[in-house]
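User: For this week's homework, look closely at the record that follows, marking any run of repeated tokens, and judge whether sequence predicts the tokens.
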Amino acid sequence: MYQGDPRAGGFLGGDCVSGQDIRDQNVLAATTIANIVKSSLGPMGLDKMLVDNIGEVTISNDGATILSMLAVEHPAGKIFVDLAQKQDKEVGDGTTSVVIIVAELLHRANKLVKAKIHPTTIITGYRLACREAVKFMQEQLSTKVDSLGQEALINVAKTSMSSKIIGNDDDFFTPMAVDTMQAVKSTNICGDIKYPVKAVNVLKAHGKLRAKLGVQILVEDPEQLKEIRKREAEITLERIRKILATGANVILTTNGIDDLYLKEFVEAGAMAVRRCRKEDLCRIAKATGGQLISSLANLEGEETFKASYSRLR
């Protein structure tokens, strides 16, 4: 039914909020998101542990990663998530800083609006301040890259990598990144020096494996690599057989299933469904009383499986 007030036009149910009330709600949403990532700012920032609805754990202090894991429904909050993702895509760093700065600007702007200053005037002032800030940084704070030296560039790269997954190996990756960018250095027709990031490509070298727990395996003999892959396949088959041994006849997973392992399920008379959505698995688990798991290992490191579980990798 339409709202009883004829001035509401085509408004269909719900509550209509406008003016200062909606501004306060937007500022509150922005401040809440900024407070979530504020403690992870800087090289000494704290890590956040995020657990999704199926029990998968993500530990990070990267602002874009943290915000992408949050279920944000408020329109203003979604803008902040998009802002952090674009900052990460364009620059690769400063995702937490940009969220905190924008939230503070919104908070201060809301105070100015309450002081009867028109929003257009506030926006004009912010744009003027932005131009002056950029001008000041270019004239007073910026330094030519050539004058910094190799050590300063490496320290800058280490600061940027500190919140990334490769932060623990920054002594190895930072000189590589600095040398790579210096190798693609070019000068355009106007005499400006450019460092095109798109000119850098990453190739995977076969024969080197890195496990999920940070263990690095250097393989020199191709036969050793063959044995490692063979053992990996055997481990997966052992896990499948543990599941089937309990009498489970329906296995659902969000990822793909190799044909080799599908054959194992078919021979046991079990149905294996791959590439299921997490939301669907949550509904099925709730309806059947099953439990979604991300690993067969318990706290002691032993791999076990019960028939009441639903296998999720």
About this structure: Residues 222-311 form a domain with the GroEL fold (CATH 3.50.7.10). Confidence is low (pLDDT under 50) at residues 205-214. The chain has three domains: 14-141, 146-202, 222-311.
